[in-house]
Amino acid sequence: xxxxxxxxxxxxxxxxxxxxxxxxxxxxxxxxxxxxxxxxxxxxxxxxxxxxxxxxxxxxxxxxxxxxxxxxxxxxxxxxxxxxxxxxxxxxxxxxxxxxxxxxxxxxxxxxxxxxxxxxxxxxxxxxxxxxxxxxxxxxxxxxxxxxxxxxxxxxxxxxxxxxxxxxxxxxxxxxxxxxxxxxxxxxxxxxxxxxxxxxxxxxxxxxxxxxxxxxxxxxxxxxxxxxxxxxxxxxxxxxxxxxxxxxxxx
Length: 251
What we know:
By secondary structure, this protein is of the alpha/beta class. Helices cover 47% and strands 16% of the residues. The protein is built from nine helices and seven strands. It has helices spanning 19-31, 44-54, 73-82, 99-104, 106-134, 155-175, 207-220, 231-239, 243-248, and strands at residues 10-14, 35-40, 59-64, 88-91, 137-142, 180-187, 224-227. Strands 3-2-1-4-5-6-7 form a seven-stranded parallel beta sheet, sandwiched between helices. α6 (155-175) links the parallel β5 (137-142) and β6 (180-187). The chain is globular, with a radius of gyration of 17 Å. InterPro entries: NAD(P)-bd_dom_sf, Sc_DH/Rdtase_CS, SDR_fam.
């Protein structure tokens, strides 16, 4: 069960090798979390992540999960919930893609959309239903400021995150009053393996900073968390710029 401050004792991570997700998990283990399920495709990286978390004192299990196999989500995730209540689900899988390549290869672009949006919808609904059935829990969805307004430089990724963000907000409204809390996290540029080699955007942040913001959001029972917080104001301004002006910005 979650404590009075909203922190979970048990955690299911969808995207078990995500650097941001693992930073969140480490922070929660340091506070209260004792049981962790890392869901992802079997790999040495997943096994290594599980071992590192066990060294912190948590009971850690790995779960075979593929975002690109929505038909298998109910079976894979159902086995986790069959083991007992899950206090928090962290939906953290995703892919950045390669904008220049993906524009030339529609199949690659579709893979980005299927991973970031279709897979998230399927997994999110499975977990939401299970949390609602048990009567409590938090679903934390890792979105992105890229979904706030499509940019020329990454509109394929940004559009997939826009869809995810809208889905998560609507799901939160649908679950309001059921005991299930949905929190959308919107980081800006995060320094990870996925963004290595890319030009660093203003207000860049770290996985650890995102983890701290997630903890604070859980304690406050927030519905939306921006990382860093200043991005809320920045994106509000960019969202309302005339399209002709926005198009000329070096973003």
